[in-house]
Amino acid sequence: MSSQKRKQVILGAYLGGVNHHTAWWDPQAGSQIEFDSFEHTARTAERGKFDFFFLAEGLALRERAGQIFDQDIIGRPDTFTVLASLAAVTEHLGLAGTINATFNEPYELARQFATLDQLSGGRAAWNVVTSFDAFTGQNFRRGGYLDRAQRYERAEETVALVRELWDSWRSDDIVADKASGRFLARPDAGEFAFHGSHFDVNGRFTVPRSPQGRPVILQAGVSPQGRDFAAGNADAIFSPYGQLPEAADFYRDIKARAVAAGRDPGDIKILPSASFVLGTSEADAIEKYREIRDQQVTGQTALVLLEQIWNLDLSKYDPEGPLPDIAPDPEAPPIIQGRAFIHQDRFATVAKLRAVAESKKLNLREVVIDQFERGPIVGTPQQVAEKIDSFVSNDGSDGFILGSHLVPTGLDEFVDDVVPLLQDRGVLRSDYEGTTLRDNLGLPIPVQREHVTAR
């Protein structure tokens, strides 16, 4: 083997709550909200030398035609509370949370993440998301929403202001006074002022600078505007692509946009989400995967996922029959509320689904299975390790955020059976070398900005 160090694989552990990827009905499945489930997953990830634990966020209970999804009756817990609790039972694992930039104030966001970073010794990360729908917004603001363009403007200002708050304390702002024997703060410690189109604030920040400089910023962006925002602001980006060559195209595009924004391409990491199914042989793994997949995507689930695209009631269609023969209706009131809509063009998406159905001879439910999967990696432990290593080494990504269909014990077999093989390949650490999340990810500590008194 060459003496040159292999490209390292970044691993995140994902626990996203009940959805069609989760086998909540399995007898081995545990609670989606009890602390034991979060703790088990986080401890398992740390045992496997993962970089971070990731939580998604849900600010509203999802609905279909005004009725709450039965999957949401367990509730959707607060991200900060869960991550702060996990800081007490882990030592090295990063703690990443999805928090909405549209419906939260920058001062509160900065203070909460800075506190989590202090409590965890520099292991916090913020996944920045935006929202434009009135359904979610009605919990937060009169009128319910921001225009799509304005939400990115607000997000840009939010991130800039949050960073300014994180930078408002310096390492030398607390000094020892020899005469009194006390520690004192410099007069301008924590002072900030920000004047923009969305925020006009000034004051003094309450939390000293983080052990890792600033919490890590994560973001997902697919549209050109979203890609530019992520490439200019994020330390890591969630990629929607789990297959080459489109994943490599996205990888190159984001790295190029980062360079155009004046950044080092190595200072931004690309991470798709993925699930996995392990077997004693390839045939065994494929059979397990098919059983899980068929149970996850019921006929009702398939129709609901397509209703989000068609924006119509499709309950009269047979899931085992052909795709709906009608056009989508983007002008109708949304039939599905509270789910992130990632399809930029409904008509183009429907055309793609019909082309897939025709070329592969698939019925409605089979098309959904084929097109809505979260990049499953299927095979023996050796094959899964090879697929992960190959994908990363060929610049499809810098790593993966892994989730299991079984909560909370599904990650155990990956850590037991695949992690040692990745370590043998020299692409995954055998132990943590640093103490912060930036150390884990190989990211530099940000240069601290100068105090700003006006903008």
TrEMBL record:
What keywords is this UniProt entry annotated with? Flavoprotein, FMN, Monooxygenase, Oxidoreductase
- EC numbers for this chain: 1.14.-.-
Where, in this chain's numbering, is FMN bound? Answer: 98, 152, 223
Record GO terms (molecular function)? monooxygenase activity; oxidoreductase activity, acting on paired donors, with incorporation or reduction of molecular oxygen
| Family matches, as Pfam families | Bac_luciferase
Locate the Luciferase-like domain: which residues?
31-392
EC category name: oxidoreductase
Look up keyword Oxidoreductase and say if it applies: yes
Q: Indicate the family of this protein.
A: Belongs to the NtaA/SnaA/DszA monooxygenase family.
Name of the protein in question: NtaA/DmoA family FMN-dependent monooxygenase
